[in-house]
Structure formats: structure tokens, C-alpha cells
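Bug: C-alpha cell stream looks shifted between consecutive jobs. Job 1:
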Amino acid sequence: MAQGHSHEGHSHDHGAGHVHGSTDKRRVLLAACLTGGFMIAEALGGWLTGSLALLADAGHMLTDSLALGLAWYAFHLGERPANSRLTYGFGRVKTLVAYTNGIAIFVVALWICYEAWQRFQAPPPILGGPMLVVAVLGLVVNIAGFLILHGGDRDSLNMRGAILHVLGDLLGSVAAIAAALVILATGWTPIDPILSVLVAVLILTTAWRLMRDAAHVLLEGTPPHLDRDGMARDLVESVPGLREVHHMHVWSMDGSRTMATLHACLNEGIDAHGAVTAIKARLAAEHGIEHATVEPEYGHCADGDGDHDHHHGGSGHDHDHGDHHGHAHGALQGAPADRRHYH
């Protein structure tokens, strides 16, 4: 069942997605250099002016430059070919980095909230003029970084994480500019920590969405835009001689490359090779799944009537198959074909 696995998945990687990945890699590296370079200037500006908004943005830019560097390395690793131990290659490293970036953003945002509370209770003196100059320069740098990343692949979780970091910096610069203007006009320094918290809350909401989507990929959930049960019904209705589909699993490697495994129960006399070919063609043409592993069956399911999990629609993980694909992804969990149906 695992035959052809490396070949099919590999050919899929070298299409438009491969080109996108190389340009995304350059975009992320350039943004990392911009962010890291200005972070030093902003940290010095925040320390000299006494502005939490600038210090918070500089702290965020520090984590961002590290995160962007990590995102660049994830793209670099993702270009490595699959091997006998990592049969899917390194593509999922990008998803791990995206999840890690989400956690880092959470930590930074919580620190900003804590520091803002401390400063709100005892507002320190703030130099509004120099603060405004540094904040405006930061805004220019962050807009440049955002525009560089914005042209990348928006379906890539790794790129989404990188864009989120720079967007957080951009919002931080806007908040620092607004705080500086208020301080220059009225002298009311509490506006600095107040706007810092507002930016932190905005960052937290977007970070949560990134972590949720990355976790869904890591848990091998069905991509949100696909309906597994609807796909199974579509196959039965579209492929002649296909009686039912069961043990169907659909997951994404990195948020953009989707794979599937399934058992195809065929009527007696139906050519297995022809049916499998038709199923794969339908999945590719109608559902965007260009790599599918299909096990044709006649009569009872090959997994037999042993002590298997019958409670999760084919998603149990209680037993081991020799097939690497089934073992790694829970693709071939056992119940007879007539015990679980998706149509």
C-alpha cells in the first residue's frame, strides 16, 4: 500500500509550490534582516526616552527577528528531499515553526500587559519628541517588511506566522506614534501603556488563530475547506463499480499539500486498477488531492474482524499495521467494510 508513496508526493512538491517556497524563503530572510537591524535602534530609543511602547515594540522585534530567522531555516529544511527515515521529507518543520511562533507571540504579549500594568500604576517620565522620531522610523521599516512578506504564499502556515510577527511590529509602531503625539499634545503619559496593551490584545487574537490552525495540521485533522464524508459520497456517486468508501483519512502536510488514504470496496468483476485510477483522478480534479493511497477490496475489509476500534469513524489508533503509512497516520484502522460507512 505504501508503494509509489515517495514518488507521488515528491513530484507534487516540485510544482508551483516549490517555486513559491524559494521566493518565500528570500522574502523571509530579507524581512529578518530589516527587523533585526532596526530592533537595536528601537531598543536604544525606548531606553533613552523611557517609552514602554518603544521598548515593547523592540522586544517584539527581537522575538520577530529570531522567529523570522527560524522561519527562513524551516524553508531551507523543507527543500531537503525525503529519505528512508523521514519519508515525507522536512515539510512539516514549517508547521512546527509556525506553532512555536504563535507561542512566542503569546509570551511577548503577556509580558507587555504585565509591564503596562506596572507602568500604569507609576507612570515614568517619557520624552515624547525623540519617541515620535523613533516610532516613525520603525513604522517605515515595518511597512517595508510587511510588503515584502505580503506577496508570499498566504496558504503557508510558516509565511502566515512570519507575516503575523511583522504585522504585530507594525501595529506596535502605530501605537507608539499615537502615544507620542498624545504625550506631546497633553503630557498624559498613561496613554503609552494603555496603547501597548491594546496592541498586545490584537496580537493575542491573531496568534491564537495561527496556533489553532498549526495544531490542526499537526494533529492531522481534515483541512477546513474539505469535507471528508462529502468526498466519500462523491467518489461513490462518480466512480462506476465503487460500492462504498471507508477508513478514509484526509490530512495536510504543511497547510497547503493535502493527502488522503482510503479503502475502496468494489463490486465483483470491477477492474481494481481502473477503479483506483478513477478514484485518484477524481480526488485530484475535484478536491485538489494529488497524492492518494487507495486500497481496493472485494467483499470483507482486509483488516478483518479483530479487536478493533469501531467508535471514531475510522480514526482509531489501537492497532499496528506493517504498512508505514497506516501506522504513522492512522489510515488503516480496522473494522469490516459493512460495519462503518461514509455514505
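Job 2, same session, no restart:
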Amino acid sequence: MAELAIPMIGGSGLHSYSRNSTFQRKGVELATELINKGIAEKLDLSKFPSSNAFRVADLGCSVGPNTFLAVQNIVDSVELKYKSQGLADLLPEFQVFFNDHASNDFNQLFTTLPPERRYYATGVPGSFHDRLFPASSLHFVHSSFAAQWLSIIPKELLDKTSPAWNKGRIHYPNSAIEVRKSYEAQFYKDMQRFLHARAHEILHGGMMALVLPACPNGTPHSRVLLNKTTELLGLCLLDMAKRGIISEEKIDSFNHPQYNATFEQVEEIMDRNGCFSIEIMEALPLEKPSPMAFSSVLRAFLEPLIEKHFGPEILDELFDLLCKRFEDSFSIIDPEETNVSLFVLLQRKAI
């Protein structure tokens, strides 16, 4: 089965990701201080082979501007590390690799590159679930709000004879336990592939920072904000099916390919891989956006997926309905408990 490619809306138009990714940007901003702390305290420059280049990769970069904020902070922090150790005369040149699926709008990304950047920019199309770079070539890897996407929809979700057939729903939080287990198993497989590939590519002593939408330990998946909003989206689709705009069969065959793991599950996956040590692991509490803003955020990353499955005709009405449901529901959502992401800073072990 071909791997899913889920590009965000490209360009710079009204619904584009570049104009509607403030929710994700907040996660990048909150991670900045933790990345700086990790580089200052944990990055040992003496472990790296002598080189005049320091190589950084952002995996799942999309179209900007959030990726530029993240990589510039890493460059600034590494430069500060060199200077604090009296190595200002040995400052390396920086090469930054921007990675996403080939269907990503790289034209938008490269036309908006910061003109005063202090790094050489390179685009790397391809799936981050597989190898993208030569062995032991990267010093620092960053990925924010990307690794939660599943590489494929588990086939049992679409099998009418399976206990995991997800009839009438588009996600797992309020579905049968078999549905959630299917999502969970696929996430485990994908993260192991992701970590295995990075273990080959990152130098011993190199680092990787991940920001993942997640589910706090002990919190039901149905109370996670992103899961709640996906449930609302499913209800909007059912409303449209009742009015004959789309068919229920179309809904039954659509599943949102994202799993928001618990903190405990993420830690277990890292430990199982064994190639990285967890240096920092902290929750990032995010503010609750307004209904209109969050509807726009969701449209920026879900529209291509929905358009491919249901067609473009339903998009405006669907997201208008979603905004209305947000307005009716947001007052009862507890933002502190349900709107949390997880920051993990890993270091490549010398194995």
C-alpha cells in the first residue's frame, strides 16, 4: 500500500497553511527555550568529527513560516554554544535541509526563505519514515507537529468484517477499542521506522527535538482538543450525509490518519528503539484558540485530505458548519487539560 502524502494547503491564499498555522507556531515557540537549554547543557561539540559544516534537518517542514523560526533558533543556539566554549574562530557554516513529501509546496517555502538567513538551504522531498540522508551526516534534527501523522490507514478500519471497522466515524477517540488499538499499533510501527532511520543519519552525540500533539497520561483520548475537533468534523459530515450532500458510505471509508499518543507511549517507543537517550521530556500547554481561528487552522491541514476523498464542492459548507459547532462547544472544553503537546529532546547514543 502506498504511503499517505498529506500536504498542507500551499501558496499564500486565504486558507493557506502559511497564513493559518499560528496554533502550530505556538508549539514551536514554547519548544525554543527547551531546545536552547538542551544545546547549552547536553550538546558536546568535541564528539563530532572535525568539519566546517553543521547540518540541521527539519522533517515535515511544510511551507513556512514556522520552520524558519525553528531552524533559526537552532542555528543561533549552536553559534552561542561555540562562542561560550571559546570556539568563536571555529564557527561552522550551517546547512539546513527542509524535508516534506514531494507534493509539498516547496515553491512557497523557498520564495519566502528569510533573506538574511545565516545558513545554506536545501530541499529534501520524501517520507521521513524512511532514510533521507547519508549515514552519520546530521548534527541536529527537528520535527514539529508532523510525526503524529500515520503513514497509512490500517486496512482493518475499512474492512466491514473486522471488529475495527470504523462505521459512521472518522477517528478513534469515541470508537470501539479495536479501532483505537489499530491506530495505536500503526503509530508504533511508524515511529519505530522514523527512529530507526534517524539512528542511521544522526551522528553520535547529535540531537533530535520533537513536538507532538499528545494525550496526557490518564486523560481519555476523547478529551484531547484535537481529537474533540475531529469528532466535531465527523458530526458535520454526518449532517451533510443526512441532507444527501454526501453518502454515508463515503464517511465509512474515511479515517483521519493521526494518532495522538500518551506521554507514556512516546517514552516506551523511545526506550524500545534504544538508540537515543531522552534528555528532556516536557508537556507544552497551548492556549485555546477562538472557534474561527481554529476552524481556519484545521482547514489549512485537512482540506487536501478531505477534498481528495469527498471532492471540492463540500469544503466551504463543511468548514462553515465546523466553525458553528466549535462556537457551540468550545465553552465546555477545558484548555489546560486537553490542549497539550509534548516536547522530547533526544540524543544519539554511542552504540
